[in-house]
Fold this sequence. Notes:
Blueprint: H1 2-13, E1 17-24, E2 29-30, E3 36-40, E4 47-57, E5 65-74, E6 77-87, E7 93-98, E8 101-107, E9 111-115, E10 121-127, E11 134-135, E12 137-145
Antiparallel strand pairs: 1-12, 2-11, 3-10, 4-8, 4-9, 4-12, 5-6, 5-10, 7-8
Amino acid sequence: LIGLFCITFLTACQDNLYYTLYQDMAQQTWDSNDSLWFSIPPAEQDMDVTITLGVRTTPSFRYKDIVARAELLDGEAVISSIPLNIALYSNNHEETHQGGLLLQDHYSKPQSLHMQAHHNYTLRVTHLMRLNPLDEVASVGIIVER
């Protein structure tokens, strides 16, 4: 029983993070014509992952939500298109300091994807907001978890 407890404890403490990357936005604006590209490292085995979109905004960001789309590409082929919505008026943000600025982190709900082993996937992210460009966006990133 003690051995089983130790194995369970160690497994529970393992980090589920597979990949994360934030890209800083030039002049703190995100234009809908500017796709963000994230190259996800190939996995050694097939796995189911969740993708979460993270957006860092300044406190003066004036919108209540962000609507975005993530497209998973395997080479040139689009495998999946995922809507990623972030509601900024709820309590789904944290505060971060970056270069002396106070920023707020906002996250989409995790979306499930299946990744095959040894494939070089790319995630292309664009915002679908009617008003363009989005001002006061410091950086945009993705979080991929197993």
